[in-house]
Automatic annotation (TrEMBL), chains A, B:
NAD(+) binds at residues 129, 190, 213. Zn(2+) binds at residues 258, 261, 360, 419. The active site is at residues 326-327. The gene is hisD. This is Histidinol dehydrogenase. PANTHER family: HISTIDINE BIOSYNTHESIS TRIFUNCTIONAL PROTEIN (PTHR21256:SF2), HISTIDINOL DEHYDROGENASE HDH (PTHR21256).
């Protein structure tokens, strides 16, 4: 953890370092992924079989390539009732929020009778990557699948590695709850390549979403354009802006909630009170030892944590915008004036009683958010990621007579005579 | 040009070949671009200077790095009045269409008083790539710049190569007309890298859009994630669905309007009348020789043109959806029933008096559209490409009491104790 004072000499330099620290994957991953993707494109299921044997340690022909719907239904039926109720609450609230994102078609007719507009349609098929092992989160499955369902995607295909052939019952239960259509026991860059190009067994999809390790993220990046992807994901981060009237233990828990995800996660506190900064630092140290995730949380906090003292919280906001954080908590009594100053953030959590974690699970907005300063240009996952817009144009003879001559002029000036001809012929020229 | 009959033996195989013919850039381009991008990232302006000397044949320190606003204003003042009026009509109609795309903020409050929503903001800066030489189209500049302006982007930066130091006055005039803030005389992959990473002279932008050759397109693809990009662009294509009541010469001109862009462009006609197919093929052959663009148009038509005869036009529509074309003309008296069957297309041109070229210039909808079957998952350029959404969440103590316990349950089940703790502390547990 580094401790900075925005009024101290050298702050600008130290803060620049924090902003530009991308914590990204290296070139080796990129080469490995290109090799894996190429193999799957050329050899299809045979490559999937070989990579799964190598990386996940099981033979797909023995363990089975698919997880059946019946297995998911059984996992759901066997679920602890409290857990099932929590998942259902999450599903219902996430659905309600995302239903408000459905885009409206547009149509307009001008004075010449020229009709223009746009029409939205869902993609035909979406692929969901669900990590295996420690990071197999049913909440992620809900957050990725529900926007696709709300968009109206007809075929939802999940891929997930099952190291040693072992499946995660909680993930299977969530798959039953949201209505996944196919589940394949493959993971890594090879699963992403299979979804993008298709194999004999797995038909190609149009959009691939979902979290994964550096190999999965790099495979999605390399295959962007062959398919649509949700986003280029990097390590996760939170910025908390808090005044001294907050409970230091609450804020410490918020910072640790980010740190416990991964050693590359980043947690940053801005506060206007040096004493409160000390109190939070102490509370983090006390809480961290009590966590089952202490090892990861401590590694992340030590390497990437920061506490920054500013003269006033207003002065923190330009710094926050430079960080363009994935998650931003404004833990003050009246957060709106600070929120009005936010230009770049994935999701904002307003007020003292809105810990980021409640948004991770049950509030409604999506928890798949732009990381690594990408909130400067990118948005969280939404229904729009599973839809596309077709524009349209309709002229009758009168409409074309009104606007066509300008098109002929411009096409001619651009040296495109067939463009000009296609309009001029219809104008009777 | 290939001629197919959808009822003939071997059609499925031949059509598959047409669908899967991606006409894409090769791996050499990818390696070259990675080298250029790396150089610009490390060496900044020195790399820009060297690459411009090498590829564009002029010394930036002699010709000047920037094109000044005054030069653009002078080009606009010197413009032929008819051309200026055509550009102004285009600007006004494109602006009117894109103003309808501005997204609305969203907010909702549930029965527990939990407030959720989303807020849209423009990106801070956008970079526009404008090709030099033959493909320097003022219409493209309008189509790329206007959505950014409508979104509210404060800094619009144009990059354009000026081979031999020569500028295109029509492009400069268009830049003045839409209000570009900075213009730099650099092009190719090196210009894209400069916009993404920034150099001493050129500050980095958040989104890069605009057409370019294979190197430019590959640079954008490689830098996706460092910045936002409009799309992965490939060769352009049109599909025309026409019955025999169309004028064969009109349809031939429409097909050639696509073919004249580039030798890799593709034009495909579906018709339900073999005699009309013959007439169009003959009309293409007659018209092609009259064009100043004959060489390019003939190369494209010979290599990538197709005429496909189907028993009925309804039967063409599933085939059209498999092609997911960038442009689709439905040249029939009543196009709506066919349009209702379109699932995947960038932009659709309805009826006999709506040549695609009128949409390229003055109708209003954007002409930057997904190519190479990407209309399955991607949309044309819009105001949304220059904006991003920040979601928000606000709970008071009562709201958190209502939904927080489910978050604690799920966080605990996922093995994330600090997540659970951050909620539980606020619940007084």
């Amino acid at each position: 953890m580094i401790r900075l004072d925005s009024t101290a000499a050298g702050f600008a330099h130290a803060f620049d370092a924090l902003v530009n620290d991308r914590r990204e994957a290296d070139a080796d991953v990129s080469r490995d992924v290109a090799m894996i993707v190429g193999s799957v494109r050329r050899e299809g299921d045979a490559a999937l079989h070989a990579f799964t044997q190598k990386f996940d340690g099981h033979d797909l022909n023995d363990s089975g390539w698919r997880i059946e719907r019946a297995d998911c239904e059984a996992a759901l039926a066997a679920l602890d009732p409290e857990l099932r109720a929590a998942l259902e609450l999450a599903r219902d609230r996430i659905t309600a929020y995302h239903e408000k994102q459905r885009p409206e078609d547009m149509a307009m007719t001008d004075a010449h009778g020229v009709r223009t507009g746009a029409r939205w349609r869902a993609v035909d098929a979406a692929g969901l990557y669900v990590p295996g092992g420690r990071a197999a989160y049913p909440s992620s499955l809900l957050m990725n699948a529900i926007p696709a369902k709300v968009a109206g995607v007809e075929r939802l295909v999940m891929v997930t590695p099952t190291p040693g052939g072992v499946v995660n019952p909680l993930v299977l239960a969530a798959a039953a709850l949201v209505g996944i259509d196919e589940i394949w026991r493959v993971g890594g860059a090879q699963a992403v390549a299979a979804l993008a190009y298709g194999t004999d067994r797995i038909r190609a999809v149009d959009v691939i979403c979902g979290p994964g390790n550096a190999w999965v993220a790099e495979a999605k990046r390399q295959l962007y354009g062959v398919v649509g992807i949700d986003m280029v994901a990097g390590p996760s981060e939170i910025v908390v802006v808090a005044d001294r009237d907050c409970d230091a233990e609450w804020i410490a828990a918020d910072l640790l909630g980010q740190s416990e995800h991964d050693p590359t996660s980043q947690s940053i506190l801005f506060t206007d009170d040096a004493g409160f900064a000390d109190a939070v630092a102490d509370a983090v140290d006390r809480a961290i030892g009590t966590l089952a995730t202490a090892q990861v949380a401590r590694a992340a906090w030590d390497a990437n944590g920061a506490i920054i003292v500013v003269p006033t919280l207003d002065e923190a906001m330009p710094l926050v915008n430079r960080l363009a954080p994935e998650h931003l908590e404004l833990a003050v009594a009246d957060p709106q004036p600070l929120f009005d100053q936010v230009r770049h953030a994935g999701s904002v959590f307003l007020g003292r009683h809105t810990p980021e974690a409640v948004g991770d699970y049950v509030a409604g907005p999506n928890h798949v958010l732009p990381t690594g300063r990408r909130a400067r240009f990118a948005s969280g996952l939404s229904v729009l990621d599973f839809m596309k817009r077709t524009s349209f144009l309709s002229c009758d003879a009168d409409g074309l007579a009104a606007i066509g001559p300008a098109a002929v002029t411009l096409a001619t000036a651009e040296g495109l005579p067939a463009h000009a001809l296609s309009v001029a012929l219809r104008l009777g020229r």
